[in-house]
Amino acid sequence: MVSVAVMFFKLFFNFFTSVEGSPHVVALQDIPLWRNCPAVFRNYECFFPPATDSYQPRAATYVHERLLRVISILPLFFERGDLMAVNFHSPEGLCDTSHYLFDLYNAYSIPNGHSRSVSPVDLFPQHDFPTLVLGDLNIDHFVSDPTRLLSGYDQFLSYPYFDRASAQLFSLLNTLGVYTRFPFTSNHSPAVLDLSFANSALLPYFSTGNPSLPPTGSDHTPLSIILSTPLLKPPPRGLNWKFTDWDHISPLLTDLTLAARPALPTPNSLDLWFDDPLTKITHLITSNTPTKRPSSYSKPWWTPELTQLQRIHHNTTRRMPKYKASPTLARAARNMYFKAIQTAKRVHWLQFLANVDSQSVWDARKIAAGRAPDCFPTLQNASSPTEINNTLLQHFFPPRPSPPPPLILPAFKDVPPVSPAEVSSPLRKSSNMSAPGPSGIPYPIWKQVNKANKQLLPALFTPRLTHGYDPLAMKKANGIVLDKPGKPD
Length: 489
Known about the structure:
Elements: E1 3-9, E2 25-29, E3 44-47, E4 59-64, H1 65-70, E5 72-77, E6 83-89, E7 101-108, E8 111-112, E9 115-116, H2 120-123, E10 131-136, H3 152-167, E11 170-172, E12 194-199, E13 206-210, E14 223-227, H4 246-255, H5 267-287, H6 304-323, H7 327-354, H8 361-369, H9 385-396, H10 420-429, H11 443-452, H12 456-467
Parallel strand pairs: 1-14, 7-10
Antiparallel strand pairs: 1-2, 2-4, 3-4, 5-6, 6-7, 8-9, 10-12, 11-12, 13-14
Helix pairs in contact: 3-7, 6-7, 10-11
């Protein structure tokens, strides 16, 4: 009997792809031996525990030669034949991320009376880098097989493994209820014995996992696991300017009046006078504008089954401290709920890809690529974003020697106040699609502010012309450095 677990590292690096559909890593359990060595396959390097007088290798891991050329691999053995690990190291980071290490644990847990040969402590290590645990564990649990009626013996065997996995933040990757073993005799029923787990650091890399490979002649079904570059987190929700409560804001803006200007204005006093009404207007607008909420299309993968699992998860979590219920049930319900969410997302994504046409192919590419990471230019003697920012400011806006500002700002003679028409005309010509300033308030909102109180903005801008001084709030701007391809800097 040979149980097979196959892993595809699709896009392990940006330049690394699978070869003619071949898996990059193949993990085998209960392997056939010849002279205490497993079989050799073309284009693959085999790693297995060395045979001794006490044990023989029961697990082996094959790594494709192309993967060996680009990353460092270190096999780990534990003086036993039923458990091994392979450590992958990339100095450039896995999938262009900050993780440089990745561990694969391959186990064949042999039944041994009322226990299994590989203990939960040995199987689930505590790592802060991506770790994948898979193998033929020979245990049944209702999380992996919800429709199976478990005996007390099955629960006694399997619960320590799932409790340990939950404590070490491992999540089950198997599709719930999909059998991995189909016995040749009628004395045993199909079961889910080949399990795979990913810790919290590896879970964002997980793409798909299902028994989609052709049969091997064994009573165990080969499993394929695809890991890819994790999608980056979406940006935080912004304000939904379409639903600003103007019925509440407009009367308040109409009644808003500016304080009297300082009789002998100084730069500091004029800054304070300008900032006070500007802060009131900004707070009034933002506090009466709701944030953008997810649309009905943001969770198209949600199903009624997820709603039920969500209720079960919340119910068991609330009942545990009040009625002193066993935490095992709460952890199992939590794992089942989050695993069902991952499965629903994967199924919806595959359905979306199956229906991609010429109109939606670029949307699919955009979703698959994710948000591009923030890029910082490389400048001499500047390594952090703050140093880069200061270097760019010194280069494009070098400080100029200027006389110190006067203690009292003089007023220019014969300078008429800013009229409402001088504010309304530029606002009317400004594009609604122009990028907002540091406040984040776009031009359509400022047009509404001016419409509610036509004397407010002119009165706010008049001292700038009267005294020839721009307050500090008007000297702030958002700067964006555009990367020019093909240029040295």
